[in-house]
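Today's session is about reading a structure prediction critically. Students often jump straight to the picture, but the first step is always the sequence itself: look for stretches that repeat, for charged clusters, for runs of hydrophobic residues. Only then move on to the predicted structure, which in these notes is written as discrete structure tokens rather than atom positions. Here is the chain we will use throughout the hour.
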Amino acid sequence: MYDNYYYRIPHQAERIIGHVAKVFNRSIIEGVREKANPGIWKDNLDQEYPPAKKVKPTEHYKAVPWEKLPDFMRALIEKIDEAPAAITALAIYTGNRPGVCRVAQWEDFDFDLKVWTIKEGSKANKSKRMWYIPLTDRTIALLKSQPTYKDGKGKGLVFKTVNGLEVPDAYLGSSIQEDLGFEGTTHGFRSALREWCQANAAIEEVAELTLQHTQNDRTRAAYARNQLFLKRKRLLTEYHEFLHTGKLDTNKLEEWRRSDG
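Below is the predicted structure for this chain, in token form.
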């Protein structure tokens, strides 16, 4: 089974192998099974199959060009009453991963302090750090417009299907290409934000922390201090202005922009 699947889509196969391992481990813990997972990767399948990167290089997520984001947002707003579109908007507004937005919980939002706390180890949080995500007025308005805010009084999942279930990840990609007519993926909006930051001379640490990246000493130091929260909030506020008008308020750029920009 692995031969056909692994050599065709190796990166997806790797993820499935990881999920299968969790199922086997849980069954052993619960006494349903005694023998170890026969399909474990380390010191087993990795002896028979080459690393996924050697089979097929990693392909970056296709992104809507940042210059076209205002056009995209106009199309997205027309669908904003649908959960996949609202999740996509939250991901764009916050620079967050769509998977994190999809399973967002009301308990993690504080509208008084205008902050979204993503706890360490929470579902879909890949960074393994606690993050404080600035909430702009546009983001808060989006969240408060959700049916679950009115019906559930701000408890449980922010986004649900019409049946009250968690929105499947597969819904998000289809809403862009099939419904909106733009070529790209929800994951690609983080790349679009990064390119917008580069085009507008954003301070490197501010841009990286907005995307929850702490891969060098400077960003790690900035994270340890205060996560550059206020500068990230100003950057996102101006980004939202661009998303909806195609313009920037040049009087406010100095808070997050390089002096040579």
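Discussion point for the tutorial: The CA atoms of residues 7 and 50 lie 9 Å apart.
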